[in-house]
């Protein structure tokens, strides 16, 4: 399958995403809540970064800002990528469309022609090993299969740009609602897809094990307001790193005990 | 020796095999007929039996409660002379024409009310209120405005069905899970593309319910208009046929007309809306109520 995917041209730019001092405040006056407070983050093209944090650390807010679904209150966001693709905790497939049509939808919005759309959708479904169920509708698929269709759709929306900008995939706890075995399989599936497509991924999770297994780099965010606490390079993951991250995460959370 | 990723691939393949949906086995056609076709036939036969018994007991005079066979003869007469088809055609083409016009007006109206806050605040409750106003109440005004002309009839039909269809669409859009339009935005859909590829299809079940109700309202509004606004230049529709029966004190004709009106209502429901609704719900896996 590797040959059929046109991987993005290696760009001369060495950052795909750059956030500088991003601040996000919800509400006004005394009831205002600071969700993000001066977040700096750089992601290289093709890099797999996991954002780790407890509830209320603004992980999802950060992702929404990068996705363009939400605006930052202040700070700067620079994207050197094609349109970022987003995957949510729920697959959010259109229930009236078949798996293939769901993937095609992303391409249709980008103005890709009918035939090219069909071919590309099938390629992407093959990539997530769902070529056989292309004509099934979401309600006929299992939770794990639906999430893979969502992955194929997200990939479709990020790899369409013709200018060769690197692709970017934003994932908001995409496997949190799945059972343990399915999650395990999907994690390895995602790694395989990532290696094949050379897409930069920002993956939000609250599961330390998942973050260490998937990411090249783990970024720990504090809660309320969200700030970057520490970063770990986890390319050569070991149990000591896992324990260290766990300790730090616990510290961040227990800091909120009254 | 298998690598860990090979083992996981196998687990994944196993999961997929277990998850592949099992094709539902459809019962043979005679059994489905037995389940869905026979009960209404029995109910109808029972109704006829009660009617016949009531008539035979002669509690009510013949001009109030006719014998079933006399009504049947009236139906056969009007069908054999071609009168029934003429009357049905006059009414049906009015109803269909009025309904199509109502759909064309109500769909953009519903979209506006659902998506533009000012419009909703301005006419949202008016639209809901109009639904509870019997459209026959418009007949006197319409006669004063348009005279006894087809315009009067179409006006009443539109006032009956437009609010239902528009409200159905609004309800359908209000019930769309907010994640779907969000996904659309994330995939790069503009406002128009989002309306066409996400909002409208997602609202289809509610829209369809509105269409169904809109049809029922336009059919009954039409009957009301035809019964009240009778004139030679309008031609004879089902309503006029019913009106004529009443003027002639011919209870057979009156009951026959009611049967024909019912027949159209049930026929359109069974031939058009039921299959449409089934197809839409089945495609979304909402087969619980079927």
Task: Summarize the topology.
The complex is a heterodimer of chains A (258) and B (290).
Chain A: E1 17-26, E2 33-43, E3 48-52, H1 59-67, E4 74-79, E5 85-87, H2 99-109, H3 114-127, H4 143-158, E6 168-172, H5 180-197, E7 200-205, H6 208-214, E8 217-221, E9 228-233, H7 239-254
Parallel strand pairs in A: 3-7, 3-8, 5-6, 6-7
Antiparallel strand pairs in A: 1-2, 1-4, 8-9
Helix pairs in contact in A: 2-3, 2-4, 3-4
Chain B: H1 4-19, H2 29-36, H3 38-57, H4 68-80, H5 83-115, H6 117-132, H7 139-146, H8 150-174, H9 179-186, H10 191-228, H11 238-247, H12 251-283
Helix pairs in contact in B: 4-12, 5-6, 5-8, 5-10, 6-8, 7-8, 8-10, 9-10, 10-11, 10-12, 11-12
Q: Roughly what is the average pLDDT of chain B, rounded to an integer?
A: 87
The end-to-end span of chain A amounts to 54 Å
Question: Could you say what the CATH architecture of chain A is?
Answer: 3-Layer(aba) Sandwich
CATH topology of chain A: Rossmann fold
Shape call of chain A: globular
Which ranges of chain B are low-confidence, i.e. pLDDT below 50, for 5 or more consecutive residues? none
Mean pLDDT of chain A: 82
- Strand percentage of chain B, roughly? under 5%
**Main β-sheet description of chain A:** 6 strands, mixed
The CATH C-level class name of chain B? Mainly Alpha
